[in-house]
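Tutorial sheet, problem 5. The two components below are modelled jointly, 331 residues in total.
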Amino acid sequence: MTIESEYSPDADRIMAVSLGPQHPGAGHFRIKLWLDGDYLVRSEPDPGYVHRGEEKMREYRNYIQNVPHLERPVILDSCGILLPYALGVDELMNNSIPLRAKYLQVIMSEANRIISHMYFLGILGIFVGHSTIIEWMMGDRTTGSTLPSG
Amino acid sequence: MSIGSAPVQPPTKPVAPVAAPSVPKPEPIRAKELAGHINARFPSVKVDYMREKRLKVSTTPTLVKELALFVRDELGFDHLKTVSGVDWIAKNEFEVVYFVGSLSKPGFEDFIIAMAERVPRDDPSVPSLIDVWLASDYNERETHEMFGINFQGHPNQAHLFLPEDWTDIPPLRKDYVSPGR
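Model answer (structure tokens):
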């Protein structure tokens, strides 16, 4: 293994351990640990192949084609990434934004932020063994999800 | 008008949307104060007022470390937000931008200073600011592997996101062509 050869002042004492990746949903993140008995002598985070090259893909597309694509990496809070993108495009094109659109931007971003917190609370409930809470949270989340359609 | 007749053309062409005139924005007092401090110490540095709460400082690789220490210690901007790179391929230059904010300076919690430095594309080498802001470690590593900019003094510029066997040019350069394009 390469992991031992990277740090071996005393190869007999130091043990290399890979903490993670635990679950594909956790983003295949691991931490490489070098242990001396109970003591942690060195650690190195390894994010894995999570960089999707979104910036490069943007270069090949029209500005409006980027909108659905940008939402993909941000699963829960898609308005949170689209608002700064829209602000940037509007500034580059020198657009004047109507007041109604500004209100809509803020309402959608805030609603999206709240329902992403609700998802977090639901998953947290599952982790602590209270599986009813995700049903409650998903129920309330629907209120926010159906907000744009009235 | 009978059903089935040709649709009536609109009398005039629809009005094209007119771009809003760009009026010079007033420079608020906070940005002016900061720009004054920076220019008093570094007269050669260009300070641009971008918008409310945003200031851009254009500097050079030889001056950037001194300026960073000044911004951190004297102005109180102790928090590095991110480091990004820009490929100005027509000008044959790279630009490295450090975005710094403050967690401790009262009244400046929402303020961001962008410190930009330009290097030629043929020899992209800038000093690492890891001694100034420790948080620049991973940000500089990413900028290094995505743009091929060498950060002098950085302890570890190994690949973070790219595959270990990557042999092509750094992928966020403008002259890199994605496979299949």
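Marking note: The helical segments of chain A are 2-6, 54-58, 66-70, 78-93, 99-127, 132-145. Full credit if you identified this.
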